[in-house]
Structure prediction request, 440 residues.
Amino acid sequence: MSRIPEDTIGRGLPGESAQPAPRTRREARERYRGTERRQARGLPSTSTGARSLRQAAKPGASLGAGHLGLGAAVLTAVEAVAGIAVFLAHWNGYTDPWLPAAAWMLFIVAAVGVGLSVMTYGERLTGLAFALICVVLGCVVTLDFIGVWPEHDLAHTASASVAAGFALLPVATLRPAREVAAAITVLGLAFVGMSIASTPITSETIPGLLSMLALVIVPPSVAIFVTHRFRQLVQRELDRVLVQSNVTAPQFAVGMLASDELARLDLAAEKLLDAVANGTDPLPLSDASSSVAASLATELRLHLIEGRRETWLYHAITESDHLGRAVSVADPSSLAGHLTPAQRDGLLQALWQMVGDGRGLQPGVPMVSVTLGPVGTAGHPVSDDTMDVPIVIESRGVTRRRLGPTAWSGLARIGPYTDTMRDGALHIVAHCVVDRHPTM
Prediction:
């Protein structure tokens, strides 16, 4: 029996129902998430694709957040040194200082262990390791609470338990925000309960207790916010750089999603040809192998056809996580391919400013719609060498007064434009004069 080459095309054979093409990279990732393991098996273990899949599956800090983690670790170390100094200075004031001392020793051992783990295995923190860290910090807080209970003055005697809150600062760069927020909530409730149970609530003690509670909760909460905003900023800039690469793309081309699909098609074709060459699947091909070969040919023809219909603007929008959710494009005549690089850059610049961060966006409802053409309408003349392409941009997410100078300068690079407000939406019509026979 001949061996059937593994089909790694990622789509069904002819006659099967085909899924619609993904609109954004995020949708494509979700669609292929269930087949990543099968694709990894189809690649050689030493190939670049297999290594990339394994590397992408590893947990840990990403997008440069590890640098934030290093700064947070330094801040935690400074607070711990200050806390130890204050604890030693008030050693004689404790009824039983050995339990807080044991809490500090446990904190130091845990900090050294986490530091060595990061230096050895990199910026990775699994769920089990995070749970273990939370258990250790819980022990630190418990020992410190028991040690300072006889003093009945938590605000001025707690030391190691306060440092436990700062220990969550570097963790915020390695674990999801919801997990760290849950740990902060539990720690804050523990301090509130201990304050009520051990310290008399008077006008003299309330300011100290509130200051201590803020010192425990606020720094890790700020770390969560800063890390989240930093990741959003980096992801947005990376997405913008990716979209900007379409400025110099040819008039018609395949996008990254199609390039990935073509890579899988190439691998499947290579396996099929290799099976024929080494005799494992001799000629004439079996029915199953013939079906695979026919599917490969059909897919390649479809990509060739799509490559003559999809312009750079289509790929720039659909391959962007931000623009793909907020911008809709109508370009039935593929007029976007005639724009020069400067006009393309101005159009993308204006769209980015109109989309903003996408807040308040309803799922499935675009904030900005772009319509190109038709040419030859009133006020848009066409000559033998040039034509005036009307570009209509309608924005419902950002009003005119909220658009900055960057958006208007981008529109000016497209060509002369007029802007009006209609039914609460910003309506812009740009006159884009382009070459009827572009060289790109």
User: Anything to note?
Assistant: DSSP finds 17 helices and five strands in the chain.
